[in-house]
Amino acid sequence: MHGPTVTLDRGSPVPLYFQVAQQLEAAIRSGELPPGARLDNELDLAARYRLSRPTVRQAIQHLVDKGLLVRKRGVGTQVVQAQVRRPIELTSLHDDLAAAGAEPRTRVLEFGPAPAGDEAAERLGVPPGTEVLRLRRLRLTGGEPLALLTNVLPAGLIDVTAEHLAEHGLYETLRAAGVNLRIAHQTIGARAATAAEARLLDERSGTPLLTMTRTAFDDNGTAVEYGDHVYRADRYSFSHTLVGR
């Protein structure tokens, strides 16, 4: 349990709760309180800082609202993992996390041939029911789940194993197989987590998730991958630059 030293100026016009929140935020951003660190309970913090419990609760809530702390039943108040900000480029999540030094880990949940559903068939330009390779993976960073990734590829496009995909990114694997990814159509949105998604992502059912669907094409304009992904909104965001015409 943690609670960094806090110095209060009781004669300052700055509210005491805000002084506490500012110093806790500084400790989080400096790494003194690293991701996953648990704070002492409100009673202990109130005694340590010689404050009322409501004042401490207000300071904690301020940081929860900013996305720096999270309250978990049975666990307490924890520092959240740093949010992943991903540029909108034709790269895989694994590539972006590795490049940022985030040490991605992958759990392969599904791997193997499957009949193409209507949406995947349309995106890949094949008849519904055509055999495709379906992958479903859970991507983690810092020991916490970040995204649930579902990908569909034309059958026979690459020779790959589930064990390989547990250690390597899909786009890395495609490029190594000689598939030159050239362009993609991508849609970003949001929706509520299903009960199954919430269990895998360590969220509550109905929690808002970011969504992304993408169809990638090779040099010949052939669709080589369709992805349908969901991301924890508290740990993930997309970023891009807009240029005026």
From TrEMBL:
The protein's name in its UniProt record: UTRA domain-containing protein
Note whether Transcription occurs among the keywords: yes
Q: Does Transcription regulation appear among the keywords?
A: yes
Q: In the record, which residues are listed under signal peptide?
A: none
Looking up Pfam families in the UniProt record yields: GntR, UTRA
Q: Name one GO molecular function term.
A: DNA binding
InterPro entries, alphabetically? Bact_HTH_transcr_reg (IPR050679), Chorismate_lyase_/UTRA_dom_sf (IPR028978), Tscrpt_reg_HTH_GntR (IPR000524), UTRA (IPR011663), WH-like_DNA-bd_sf (IPR036388), WH_DNA-bd_sf (IPR036390)
**From which domain of life does this come?**
Bacteria
**HTH gntR-type domain: residues covered:** 14-82
Keywords, ordered alphabetically: DNA-binding, Transcription, Transcription regulation
**What does the record give as the organism's lineage?**
Bacteria, Bacillati, Actinomycetota, Actinomycetes, Streptosporangiales
The record, for CDD domains, names: WHTH_GntR (cd07377)
Gene Ontology biological process terms in this record: negative regulation of DNA-templated transcription
